[in-house]
Amino acid sequence: MEESFLNRLWSLHQQNQLRIPTGLLCQFLNRLLQMLFPPLAEQPFKDADALAQEATFLEQELESLLEGVQHISGFPAPETVDRFMKQLPHLHERLIADAQFILQEDPAARHIEEVMRSYPGFYGIAVYRIAHLLYQEGVPLLPRILTEYAHSRTGIDIHPGAQIGFPFCIDHGTGIVIGETTTIGRNVKLYQGVTLGALSVAKYMTDLKRHPTLEDNVIIYAGATILGGNTVIGAHSIIGGNVWLTETVPAYSRLYHRAQIKVSRSEAPEDILDFSI
């Protein structure tokens, strides 16, 4: 490799002020989930003191991670960590409600432990809710890294800025995209391949509402695409699979995509080649 190129790279490394150990961030995430949900823990805590020590370790680890990006927006890391930890009881309550809702809505689910341990939808929601707390605190970069980590593991892409009520159910989940300014109410259920996206994409729209609103008790079936910041799906509506929607629908609506399916059969040819060698 040319020395001039190596020198240029070294100069860039010297200029870089970001200190984001992604591996430690993901480790923090998974240890936090294991602390909050016993079915996820690789081994049980031997006593309450051990659990308290883990909480203290995670608090210190989060402060260290936040200090790596503190220079970008100047948020106070210690106060941010304190507020984050104080919100964990409420976060736990919401995620338990999410898991129970998934169990209630999916006939294939037998136990809430099964949902927590093996359902990508629950994992994607859990990581989103953790990242969303940090996003609300104005923490840069880290929330997006967390949700993209979950995206890589589950195929579920939820921007940490989205506003999602609880309980929330993602069934299967692969290919779901939920944009930054999406607003989702309570008791909403999404199937795989759903896109809640922007009608058009331009940089000037950064601070505008670009993504749709789903009111309470909405169900969106597989492959549906709903676009636009002014698009509202009214409460108790059902959007069928493969629907493409860019306009508001009132409450209690039922929208389905009707495909034209033509089945034809050709007659068997008169000359059938049948031989052996």
From TrEMBL:
Gene Ontology molecular-function annotations: acyltransferase activity
UniProt GO BP: amino acid biosynthetic process
Keyword Transferase annotated: yes
Superkingdom of source: Bacteria
UniProtKB keywords: Acyltransferase, Amino-acid biosynthesis, Transferase
InterPro entries from the UniProt entry: LbH_SAT, Ser_AcTrfase_N_sf, Trimer_LpxA-like_sf
Gene3D superfamilies, alphabetized: Hexapeptide repeat proteins, serine acetyltransferase, domain 1
Protein name, entry field: Serine acetyltransferase
Protein's organism: Rufibacter hautae
